[in-house]
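TL;DR need C-alpha coordinates for one chain.
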Amino acid sequence: MFCRITKDGLALLDGLDRPIRDSEENALGGLSLKQLTQLVSLLDRARNGLHAALARRADNNQEAT
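>> reply
TL;DR here they are.
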Protein backbone atom coordinates (compact mmCIF):
# COMPACT_ATOMS: atom_id res chain seq x y z
CA MET A 1 0.00 0.00 0.00
CA PHE A 2 1.32 3.38 -0.96
CA CYS A 3 0.19 6.60 0.68
CA ARG A 4 0.85 10.09 -0.58
CA ILE A 5 0.12 13.42 0.92
CA THR A 6 -1.78 15.89 -1.22
CA LYS A 7 -0.75 19.48 -1.94
CA ASP A 8 -3.51 20.61 0.43
CA GLY A 9 -2.10 18.30 3.10
CA LEU A 10 1.39 19.70 2.62
CA ALA A 11 0.02 23.24 2.87
CA LEU A 12 -1.75 22.33 6.11
CA LEU A 13 1.44 20.87 7.58
CA ASP A 14 3.42 23.91 6.46
CA GLY A 15 0.98 26.13 8.33
CA LEU A 16 1.50 24.13 11.53
CA ASP A 17 5.27 24.55 11.72
CA ARG A 18 5.25 28.06 13.19
CA PRO A 19 2.53 27.48 15.84
CA ILE A 20 4.29 24.32 17.01
CA ARG A 21 7.65 26.08 17.27
CA ASP A 22 6.01 28.98 19.12
CA SER A 23 4.32 26.64 21.60
CA GLU A 24 7.61 24.86 22.27
CA GLU A 25 9.31 28.19 22.93
CA ASN A 26 6.49 29.28 25.22
CA ALA A 27 6.55 26.01 27.16
CA LEU A 28 10.31 25.61 27.45
CA GLY A 29 11.64 29.11 26.83
CA GLY A 30 11.97 29.91 30.52
CA LEU A 31 14.30 26.98 31.18
CA SER A 32 18.05 27.34 31.24
CA LEU A 33 20.29 25.07 29.20
CA LYS A 34 21.11 23.14 32.38
CA GLN A 35 17.41 22.71 33.16
CA LEU A 36 16.66 21.58 29.60
CA THR A 37 19.49 19.05 29.84
CA GLN A 38 18.08 17.74 33.12
CA LEU A 39 14.59 17.55 31.62
CA VAL A 40 15.83 15.54 28.64
CA SER A 41 17.70 13.20 30.99
CA LEU A 42 14.62 12.67 33.17
CA LEU A 43 12.42 12.05 30.15
CA ASP A 44 14.93 9.51 28.83
CA ARG A 45 14.90 7.71 32.19
CA ALA A 46 11.11 7.71 32.25
CA ARG A 47 10.92 6.38 28.69
CA ASN A 48 13.46 3.65 29.43
CA GLY A 49 11.54 2.65 32.55
CA LEU A 50 8.31 2.50 30.60
CA HIS A 51 9.90 0.35 27.89
CA ALA A 52 11.26 -2.01 30.54
CA ALA A 53 7.87 -2.28 32.26
CA LEU A 54 6.14 -3.00 28.97
CA ALA A 55 8.73 -5.64 28.08
CA ARG A 56 8.22 -7.33 31.48
CA ARG A 57 4.47 -7.26 30.97
CA ALA A 58 4.83 -8.82 27.51
CA ASP A 59 7.14 -11.51 28.93
CA ASN A 60 4.65 -12.28 31.72
CA ASN A 61 1.80 -12.49 29.23
CA GLN A 62 3.77 -14.94 27.06
CA GLU A 63 4.55 -17.12 30.07
CA ALA A 64 0.87 -17.18 31.06
CA THR A 65 -0.24 -18.50 27.66
